[in-house]
Write a structure and sequence with these properties.
This is Dynein axonemal heavy chain 1. With about 675 residues, the protein is of the alpha/beta class. It folds into 5 domains: about 130 residues, no CATH class; about 120 residues, 3-Layer(aba) Sandwich (Rossmann fold), CATH 3.40.50; about 90 residues, no CATH class; about 130 residues, Up-down Bundle (Substrate Binding Domain Of Dnak, Chain:A, Domain 2); about 160 residues, Roll (Hypothetical upf0131 protein ytfp). Helix content is about 45%, strand content about 10%. The chain has 26 helices and 16 strands. Helix 7 packs antiparallel against helix 8, helix 15 packs antiparallel against helix 16 and helix 21 packs across helix 24. The longest helix has about 30 residues. The protein starts with a helix and ends in a 5-residue tail after the last strand. The mean pLDDT is about 90.
Length: about 675
């Protein structure tokens, strides 16, 4: 990322990169024009929308029409294993430079954008800029002095302490190194340690500065007061910290900084573990004593960090593949291809190491029981995380070509204001849908309208304020400044997010989604309770589920605590009215598997098909329900693709909704390791 930014900045100064195109790469574009997707069988609607938005840029004005003309050639690019190295169809290969080709790739194959960035840096700077660097302490030490701290910026899974102790030994300083792990009450001791080391020329090592935020101002003062004339020239201050907003900026600016990236993947982690072993590790011959391991591993070693029940279910199932008697047979393979297999017991340490070196550099999803599509999801997430971080690093005010940033923000704000309706009239809703004992859905509707109205009021008010601030009629507050940056970068402003439902969509899609949700409510208000509920349209789906159980409990005159749902998957064509009991829901997406409407059960995903629509599900309230047999998969429903939430004040998760049973002819374990879940809303 650093190398890419450096490269782009140099090329911008030389006038080789257009600001509008740079902006499109980072945040995508939006388009009001929606024409029919020309190839729905392989091109996602998201990609087609991106192509239409790309065609708004001058250099790409004929791109969408040309795309339709050359569909079969673009399909070849889409299916390629290395699309970032394929020539573009038609005129585009010679008309576009290497940077502009990144934009086409962003539309069609997001998962390969990071690879294309690497090629871009290698071509325009030098290949050495993309090769991983090894942390060389002696090189850093040569550039340091007694008044400049040396900071290790930590990343999860790394600990530079061992490297530093080893380096201290090489420099004959291990006896003159004092270390302390910061935390509550360690401040005074650290201060004493530092003062004596400054005079005697020792090294001080303060670990985990992020755990002592209240002591950081003291550390800042101590460093500022190091007198260059009086300090011993051998004195060095080493610090480690996770990135933290409480870390003093002045220390950061005046220090040498290093970071060690954690080993990524099975190969790198195994190398790290086995490289640190000594040759006598073969002396243990008692192999068959490990069957309590799974409880230890899943429940304690990993389980101590895993608080979510669904995550624990996943960890237990993955570990069963490794902690099981079958792995002791010398021929055992851990996955279908046979690449990951049991190491022969006759090997010495070098034998183990040479086997590990033969493993693929990038993990194959099969080793974790995942579908090959998981690689695409992972790479796409990596691309968006990278672009998102670059956006945060952009200067806050810059003129974009001829059209200033303010003008773009103003157009976006006016466009949203025109499309977003006024809040719903509450009195009409409560008059038509009064609180009824036998119909809890009325209460659910009223609560939903209240929540959406609250969000609409914030959106409309803040957009009006921002437009006034841009004209200079009111002061541009820091909150409005942040909001302007969000509108410019096609992300949802924090002011709205605070009042909204969880969503990962970029701003343009978020607004479209909000309008769809409001249409769902309006159809309900005008046409009566729907036959099939769009579960993704609810602000708070848990209340809707509780309302469905409540209706059944009141009708059957039994306690709601004794009722839970059973599930039937239905074909949607036949549903024109509400069922006698329970409710129909639609609008869910399957990730990790697909629904097979012919065999009426879960099936493997098709290649490159990351999400598929789930059929209608009938939720049937059932009293005193017994656990079902093995012919289903218990599938969690989440609101967004992150699948992680926090417990809100109502006791409900902010992301997890409910688990449903989906028919399957495979064991549950298969789908658990596939990571199969139902998602209410995707990220586009």
């Amino acid at each position: 990322m650093f190398a890419f930014l450096l490269c782009v900045r140099i090329m911008m100064n030389e006038g080789k990169i257009d600001q509008h195109e740079w902006h499109y790469l980072l945040s995508g574009g939006s388009t009001q024009m929606t024409t029919q997707n020309p190839a729905p069988d392989w091109l996602s609607d998201r990609a087609w929308r991106d192509i239409l938005a790309l065609s708004n840029l001058p250099a790409f004005s004929s791109f969408s029409s040309d795309f339709v003309r050359h569909l079969s050639e673009f399909r070849v690019l889409f299916d390629s294993l290395e699309p970032h190295r394929e020539p573009l169809p038609g005129i585009w290969d010679r008309n576009l430079d290497q940077f502009q080709k990144l934009l086409v790739l962003r539309c069609l194959r997001r998962d390969k954008v990071t690879n294309a960035m690497q090629d871009f840096v290698a071509t325009n700077l030098e290949p050495r800029f993309i090769e991983p660097q090894t942390a060389n302490l002696s090189a850093v030490f040569k550039d340091s002095n007694s008044t400049t701290p040396l900071i290790f910026v930590l990343s999860p899974g790394t600990d530079p302490a061992a490297d530093l102790y080893k380096f201290a030994e090489e420099m004959k300083f291990s006896k003159k190194l004092s270390a302390i792990s910061l935390g509550q009450g360690q401040g005074p001791q650290a201060e004493t340690m530092m003062r004596s080391s400054i005079e005697r020329g020792k090294w001080v090592f303060f670990q985990n500065c992020h755990l002592a935020p209240s002591w950081m101002p003291t550390l800042e003062r101590l460093i500022e007061h190091i007198n260059p004339d009086k300090v011993h020239r051998d004195f060095r201050l080493w610090l480690t910290s996770l990135p933290s907003s409480r870390f003093p900026v002045s220390i950061l600016q005046n220090s040498s900084k290093m970071t060690i990236e954690p080993p990524r993947g099975v190969k790198a982690n195994l190398m790290k573990s086995y490289s640190s072993l000594s040759d006598d590790f073969n002396s243990c011959h008692k192999v068959k004593h490990a069957w309590c391991l799974i409880a230890l591993g899943a429940g304690i070693n990993y389980g101590g960090r895993v608080t979510d029940d669904w995550d624990r279910r996943c960890v237990m199932n993955i570990l069963e593949d490794f902690y099981s008697p079958v792995v002791l047979s010398p021929e055992h393979s851990y996955s279908a291809s046979g690449i990951y297999h049991q190491i022969q017991p006759t090997y010495d340490l070098n034998g183990y190491l040479s086997y590990i070196k033969s493993l693929p550099l990038n993990d194959m999803p099969e080793i974790f029981g995942l579908h090959d599509n998981a690689n695409i999801t992972f790479a796409q997430n990596e691309t968006f995380a990278l672009l998102g971080t670059i956006i945060q690093l952009q200067p806050k005010s810059s003129s974009v070509g001829g059209q200033g940033r303010d003008e773009i923000v103003q157009n976006t704000a006016q466009g949203i204001l025109l499309r977003v309706p006024e809040p719903v009239n509450m009195q009409q809703v409560t008059a038509k849908y009064p609180v009824l004992y036998e119909e809890s859905m009325n209460t659910v509707l009223v609560q939903e309208v209240i929540r959406y109205n609250r969000l609409l009021q914030v959106i409309i008010q803040t957009l009006r304020d921002l437009l006034k601030a841009l004209k200079g009629l009111v002061v541009m507050s820091s909150q409005l400044e942040l909001m302007a940056a969000s509108l410019y970068n096609n992300t949802v402003p924090e002011l709205w997010n605070a009042k909204a439902y969880p969503s990962l969509k970029p701003l343009s899609s978020w607004v479209m989604d909000l309008l769809r949700r409001l249409d769902f409510l309006q159809a309900w208000i005008q046409g009566g309770i729907p036959a099939v509920f769009w579960i993704s349209g609810f602000f708070f789906p848990q209340a809707f589920l509780t309302g469905t159980l409540q209706n059944f409990a009141r009708k059957s005159i039994i306690s709601i605590d004794t009722i839970s749902f059973s599930f039937k998957v239905w074909l949607p064509s036949e549903l024109k009215e509400r069922p006698e009991v329970g409710c129909y829901i639609h609008g869910l997406f399957l990730e990790g598997a697909r629904w097979d409407p012919v065999a009426f059960q879960l099936a493997e995903s098709r290649p490159k098909e990351l999400y598929t629509e789930m059929a209608v599900i009938w939720l049937v309230p059932t009293p005193n329900r017994k656990a079902q047999g093995q012919d289903f998969y218990l599938c969690p429903i989440y609101k967004t693709l992150t699948r992680a939430g926090t417990l809100s004040t109502t006791g409900h998760s902010t992301n997890y909704v409910i688990a449903v049973e989906i028919p399957t002819d495979r064991p549950q374990r298969h789908w658990i390791k596939r990571g199969v879940a139902l998602i209410c809303a995707l990220d586009y």
